[in-house]
């Protein structure tokens, strides 16, 4: 659908900052509560797509012991999401998928974790399923097997989670990534500048802006602003590098042409907010992830902690490999 | 959702394999069947829409073991964004988590153009009145204009996909249905053949028959032209014999039927013709034949000067770039002269006009919901209570079941029905924080796969000489 104005994207998936904070809080607290009451947060998705929740812990002492398992904080979850969103970009790049596949997959991933905590569904699995779903929707069909093979992951995990992901997205599957908007704005800028001799510069402007969009997609901005504004924010950043046009004047011209509901200052404020989200964006490294990932492993499977108490630390290695055998996350996702 | 479960089952139809969500409906029977799966008629059991008819479209599982059917996904994703009086309304999506199949619930339409045309041809022996033809055509174009302006091409328009509402507040309103092949065309579209899809050739545009690689909205307008002619004459306009071979064989007979009526296309009138693959490679066949005295007007019994003929011939323009668009067609003079088109296409406003009572859609009550006979003994099923209001995913009182995932501590499978519903109508709740508990989480006795013993009902259209089986009739 080309009409963003009447889309489910606009109607249901653009939030206020407070709404986002609240959503992240709710799912984080739900997972923490589950950890306390049931000793584990893991919701198992089986081959038929059904979910199993941890069973209530009848043995009070066990629960007592396990209540020492540290849950992930909201900030941990945030970092972990960004980490796996980066992974989505890496995987899509490795497969040579078009940019929109990557954009759609990341937006799916973000929407999914508005409903769930990373403690409930491991982001590694969800990341793969989001890429898979994005390929299906964008008519770039890749079989789950192919996808799994390419990154040495069990493709059954992708298929098991597919229905869960589609449902969590409310089947609102048409999303508007900002890449297309950039194309449109750059064409428009070409007219605006009457820049026949600047085609090279416009190309640079566009390419840098697309790289900026890649980074913007890692922030909360896609859940807060429409794709057009994300694209403009990226172009403004890009223009700071290339100095192709007077951007304020260009924004003014857009406003005047569109008889939009926004005033120029409102638009600039939005772009500034997107900019500040970009500045605040922390790109977690694998090392940053280690302590969070350890916490997550214990949340998902507290028996690891029980084992730890029993076993010597020297056995850590073999335990880790056995956990991997069961499809549990490893601390350094590929 | 999923309420009314427990051990008491729907006693209207004692099938134990019914999914839990189905209990919000009274299942009446099967009303259609196609390559995509089956369509059932059901009625809503409880208020506020008690007794309202719903068509439930069941998609077959994809065979290749590659997850949820892409056709189903595509149809849902488009329908989620669409909202127009002349487009069928998706009211619900249900999921069977035991076999990953999807069920789409639509507002039910009692009639479709295929049945209406057939009724006139076989029972009434009289053409459809001008008011009805014009009203149906106008509404079809109105819906299509909406789709096209939203960059959606339908690609499979044919009389059986054009529904008409029966009695009720929407009586006689036309609804375009079946978006399984529809596409957004902001991106270049792959040819259908690449997706391994076969559609009826009678309504296929000449550029596609000649091997055009990409679809434009003009292919839908060609189909509308064919449907318009069929509404007038009660006979398919171009009844070619389909060559069945894969992938996407050259349909010479279909082109032959078109040329016989419309004459030979020429590069003068259709400049891009020379670029079409089959035009070049099949010179001998296509360009070699001679077609005399084209006479569309005589086939459809219209005066060459009539606005109806003018509109029809503009829809059947060879060059897709010159073919009339839906928006232009709505402005055509044909719709400005008496009788003017109306909202209730079935009941003419003018007094004295005879009202045709179309028969209700035939319902096959012998096929059960799974499309097979039940082979499973009744089993108790616990209720899913999927849409719990609390922030914590609902925990159904666990029954002891053998653990089949030994390494997982503290895990247990939830017993329960294999299905849960996902109510699109309650989507408003999603913005405010959809409860993940609304996700189906049960599997169990209810949705066991069982032997497929298809009781295929012969389609009423099949008996008609010259009519190929309407394999892909949509409800």
TrEMBL record, chain A:
- Please state every residue range assigned to the domain named Cyclin-like: 86-167
The answer, when asked if Nucleotide-binding is one of the entry's keywords, is no
User: Cell cycle: present as a keyword of the record?
Assistant: yes
Q: Which InterPro entries match?
A: Cyclin-like_dom, Cyclin-like_sf, Cyclin/Ssn8, Cyclin_C_2, Cyclin_N
Q: Where is the composition biased (Basic residues)?
A: 310-320
- A Pfam short name: Cyclin_N
Q: Which domain of life is it from?
A: Eukaryota
Q: Which GO terms describe its biological process?
A: cell division; regulation of transcription by RNA polymerase II
| Family assignment from sequence similarity | Belongs to the cyclin family.
Please report the name of this protein according to its UniProt entry: Cyclin-H1-1
Q: Where is this region: Disordered?
A: 301-334
The UniProt GO MF terms for this protein read: cyclin-dependent protein serine/threonine kinase regulator activity
The record ties this protein, via PANTHER family, to:
CYCLIN
The UniProt keyword set, sorted, is:
Cell cycle, Cell division, Cyclin
Extract one GO cellular component term from the record.
nucleus
TrEMBL record, chain B:
Which EC class is the enzyme in?
transferase
Q: Which reaction does this chain catalyze? A: L-seryl-[protein] + ATP = O-phospho-L-seryl-[protein] + ADP + H(+); L-threonyl-[protein] + ATP = O-phospho-L-threonyl-[protein] + ADP + H(+); [DNA-directed RNA polymerase] + ATP = phospho-[DNA-directed RNA polymerase] + ADP + H(+)
User: What are the record's GO terms for cellular component?
Assistant: mediator complex
**Among its keywords, does the record have ATP-binding?**
yes
**Ligand binding (ATP):** 58
Enumerate the UniProt keywords alphabetically.
ATP-binding, Kinase, Nucleotide-binding, Phosphoprotein, Serine/threonine-protein kinase, Transferase
**Has UniProt tagged this entry with the keyword Nucleotide-binding?**
yes
Known Pfam families for this protein?
Pkinase (PF00069)
Region feature (Disordered): 367-402, 431-475
Task: State any single GO MF term.
Answer: ATP binding
Q: Identify the EC number(s).
A: 2.7.11.22, 2.7.11.23
**Signal peptide as annotated in the record:** none
Limits of the Protein kinase domain: 25-335
The record's comment on protein family reads: Belongs to the protein kinase superfamily. CMGC Ser/Thr protein kinase family. CDC2/CDKX subfamily.
Name under which the protein is recorded:
Cyclin-dependent kinase E-1
